[in-house]
Q: What sequence folds into this?
């Protein structure tokens, strides 16, 4: 079982006495132990027999350490309520070298960690708190069997103050569309996840996440979420919002080298490049053009606007598409880099991708994240076949995962 309170907290104390005999060469950063648990070995056991499986099997029982290839997506959201202290700690303990706080804002413009400005009804207990549920943009509506209308609600961080937000408890993301009561609606955790660790779910402000990650010695990747309200909001423009995110790192004394600010909005990335280059040079353009740009096809460069070369010329250094955009099935029936991947590399762009361990069971094709390789996705071990192509053939610098131990295991086994 993964331990939430590990010896990792003691490492900074143990390193205080370290010294460098050669002042011209700073000491190599110490390796930080990681606990990968039983899941990686299980996934390896499910792989089709071959050299990669044998190589990964041979790493069972070795010592594992933190890796920057492993990015905690909302923490460790497969088993812990996302964007909570507990989820972040699980990601840190399982070897994530980078951890994500998705950033949105409250009614009093405080920055907090939530995946969406309007997801409190599925990720927290707000509907079970009558005085706060009354403030939701759209109150709870039960399932209507006569019209087959799903149960629904809409509760946003911008509906409540920071103090009210911090009084909530995080829960596993999910809702039951057939629910006729609030209690049943909140009990919607997907069957391939678990509620074993959802008894507590401590919500976090963005500033609190910075202090936690800084103390643990991990890098940080905040995502500026698209506002669900009209901007400017109470005098705060989109640019003010982007500036406020960076300012909280500056106030905490965190170097831009330790931060990868992200946004699906290319203008946000360009704004950071222009106004805060220390952070903008590592800004990540999250690419969802398959959903936002008509005709976009990651397998056909003629449909890309802007092109990879244009992005690079505009100062973008890191691009982050979903997993499926980077791969295809080759003529030999194996997973291979897609045209998107090869042209991004050719343009000099670094690549991060999302999201591993978010698809449930892979025995039936893997769903949305595996849509370009559905024909060869037929067992749980395919996750490592995909990861091997991403790391070895494409050269991604980071992989978001809902269970970072999976990537930590691979990175250590491969010496990355």
A:
């Amino acid at each position: 079982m993964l331990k939430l309170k590990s010896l990792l907290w003691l490492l900074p104390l143990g390193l205080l006495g370290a010294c460098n005999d050669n002042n011209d060469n700073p000491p190599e950063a110490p390796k930080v132990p990681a606990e990968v648990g039983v899941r990686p070995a299980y996934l390896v056991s499910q792989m089709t027999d071959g050299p990669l499986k044998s190589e990964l099997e041979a790493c069972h029982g070795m010592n594992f350490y933190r890796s920057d290839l492993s990015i905690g997506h909302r923490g460790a959201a497969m088993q812990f309520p996302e964007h909570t202290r507990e989820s972040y700690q699980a990601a840190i303990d399982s070897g994530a070298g980078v951890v994500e706080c998705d950033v949105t804002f409250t009614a009093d413009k405080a920055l907090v960690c939530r995946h969406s400005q309007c997801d409190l009804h599925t990720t927290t207990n707000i509907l079970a708190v009558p005085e706060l549920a009354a403030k939701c943009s759209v109150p709870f509506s039960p399932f209507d069997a006569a019209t087959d209308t799903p149960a629904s609600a809409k509760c946003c961080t911008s509906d409540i103050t920071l103090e009210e937000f911090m009084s909530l408890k995080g829960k596993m993301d999910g809702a039951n569309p057939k629910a006729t009561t609030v209690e049943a609606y909140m009990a919607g955790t997907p069957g391939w996840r678990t509620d074993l660790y959802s008894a507590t779910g401590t919500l976090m402000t963005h500033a609190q996440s910075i202090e936690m990650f800084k103390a643990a010695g991990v890098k940080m990747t905040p995502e500026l979420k698209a506002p669900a309200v009209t901007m400017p909001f109470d005098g705060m423009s989109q640019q003010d919002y982007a500036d406020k995110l960076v300012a909280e790192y500056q106030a905490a004394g965190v170097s831009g080298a330790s931060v990868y600010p992200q946004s699906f909005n290319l203008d946000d990335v360009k704004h950071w490049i222009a106004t805060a280059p220390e952070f903008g040079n590592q800004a990540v353009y999250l690419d969802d053009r398959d959903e936002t740009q008509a005709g976009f096809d990651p397998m056909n460069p003629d449909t890309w606007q802007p092109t990879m070369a244009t992005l690079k010329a505009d100062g973008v250094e890191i691009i982050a598409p979903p997993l499926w955009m980077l791969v295809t099935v080759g003529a030999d029936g194996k997973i291979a880099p897609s045209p998107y991947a090869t042209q991004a590399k050719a343009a000099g762009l670094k690549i991060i991708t999302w999201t591993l361990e978010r698809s449930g069971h892979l025995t039936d094709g893997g769903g949305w994240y595996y849509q370009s390789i559905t024909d060869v996705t037929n067992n749980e071990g395919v996750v490592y076949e995909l990861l091997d192509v991403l790391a070895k053939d494409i050269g991604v610098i980071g992989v978001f995962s809902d269970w970072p131990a999976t990537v930590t295991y691979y990175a250590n086994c491969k010496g990355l």
About this structure: Confidence is low (pLDDT under 50) at residues 1-23.
